[in-house]
Amino acid sequence: MNTESISEKKEVNREPSVHLIVFKLGSEEYGIRIEQVKEVTFTPEIARMPKIPVFIKGVANIRGDIIALLDLEERFHISSSALVNGEAKSYSKSYTLVLEAKDYTIGLLVREVPQSLSIPVSRIEKTPSFIQDLQINDNYIEGIGKLGERLIIVLDIHKILTFDEAEQLKA
Amino acid sequence: MKSREQEYKEIFIAEALEYFDALNRHISNLEKTPDDDQILAEIFRLLHNLKANAKAIGYLPISDLAHKLETAFELVRKHELTFSNEVATVLFDGIDLLGELLSNVDDPNYKILDESLFHNLDILAENGATKDLSEATKVQKLNARNLTLSDLIYIQIKKLDHLLNLVGELIIDRDRIISLSKDLNSEDLKAVSSHLYRITEEIQFSVMDARLVNVGTLFNKFPRIVRDIAQAEQKEIQLEIIGQDIQIDRNILQIITDSLLHLVRNAISHGVEKTADRLKKNKPRQGTLTLSAQSDRDNVLIKLSDDGRGIDIPAVKKAIVARKSLTADLVDDLHENEVLSYLFEPGFSMAKEVTEFSGRGVGLDVVKNAIDSIGGRIQVTSEKDKGTTFTLHLPTSIAVKGALLFEVEEGYYAILLMHTDSVVSIDKDELHEVGNMLVANIKNETIPVIYLREFLNSNDAHMNLGSKDRLNGTVQNIIIIVYNNRRLGLIVDKLYRQQDIVIKPLNKPLDNIEIYGGVTLLGTGKVCLVLDVPAITRYFISKK
Questions:
Q1: Which residue positions does the secretion signal occupy (chain B) (predicted)?
Q2: CATH code at A47?
Q3: pTM here?
Q4: How far is the C-alpha of B413 from the C-alpha of B520, rounded, in Å?
């Protein structure tokens, strides 16, 4: 944990805060509430599965559980620098956030080591309404957290998964 | 203790229901041979035991009824009462009521609606009630009965399911350890793992064995059912049962119960002709239904045959055209087997054209789905005026299944052996481009063949299955799969081996991807995708 976040913590000590796991997609930072994250691990070998939506990269064996791995950059259509260079993206040096929903587990692929940090509830703003209006189906953004210079998009993982399923059926 | 009491009750019910089945079987037989003393003695014994057990556990209405029936049968046995039509009706009703009481035993609000049956039974008993002595001897017999504990224990299937799941997990880990011991090249580890292999093999076998039941437990319910349906349809039908003692996993038997009932009902209602029609065709007046079971390697074959009118192939063809599944000239060229396979398509009904398969809200597609779900398959053959035979190929056991492993583009895949017909290697030149497909002549049959790599990797718009250009190398490995009487060849990159696998279901959000039946872990820890043959075949049928 870096010094910045520690000083932030001190400052907000008495306020109720939200504990997030923060990771980068493209050039922005995204966060997911720690309760929804089961573990963070090096990405295991991915078994490619033909005939599934492109943003699901396949399945992997994590301690005997076989879970689907999602690339949110592709899911959100975010262009990342890594994507432009090579045609095939490699996930060999990436990390997997294992998320636990009510009745199943799923993995998110992220490029850099995810960080853990606390942010006061008051620093998380509701999503500006016009963004909600623009992306009717995509209101998986729970809010936008501001911490000094940083801007963290807080995701509601349950909504991402629900939407995946909807799109899934079309595929 | 309450739970102990509950357990006793459950055991009583389980036993009583077995008795009930047996009673039904015997009384149906008795109706045909009313003088058979052996059957009478057996009925007598069953009622007697049932009465005693019901009394012991405190189910008095059941023991009373069993007692009354027993008295009536006693009279029949002593030839003081003839097993005539009226008598038979009362006794059948009595046994039905017994079944009703058994299934409502836990309902405190349940009341017998019609007391007249008791009255009838009393009248029967009184007709020969001069011998009050017989009653007394019976009570004595009851008291003199030796107390013996059964060698059987009743166990909830849930517990066995759990055990079998654990065995599945164990096997995956075992294979993992064996492959690690090879990688590490440690002699000690190899010795231990080969011992582990033997033990898990034995555990697996024992648990699977514990779940096996006789097919007879299901078959023996049918004499009564057939009698009732035949009577309702005013048809004369005899049922032959063969191979009751073939063993099969209890859950598989459970899953096919409704399907078999459906097929039997169809066979009686629509397959077998009325007596007058049969005589016109020079057939024996009594129709015959044969329900048989036999072992076939690791599978069990259950066959249901009737000697009725058979399926009207031209009418099925008409129905195919009417549904616009195929054009008339294409249908004309179809092989008979293929015509029949359309009967299993969802929503396929020929209610108007032929009555043989007019459904009652349940079609043959439902039967087929049930059988697919346990990795089995169903076949039908039929000959005009000779009859129809349905054959169910069922796995003996659920959890561990034989599969063929192969590789496509560095990914591991498996197909259940149940769905594979054969494996062949043929030269590229023997494949021909026909329309949008490849075909090959294999064992004198023209079989469509698809290049699995192309099928898996191209989206529908760019898929080109009719071109040989994309094939690698000259010799092609082809797995021939069979489903619903149709054969399809799959070209794979590399063939591996046969192996028993434990299939894990795919979780959300991948649980709806049709072509996968699940995944399994290989000994190396690698994920292997299990292809769902029914779904792949369906894909190509809908394509056409």
A1: none
A2: 2.40.50.180
A3: 0.57
A4: 9
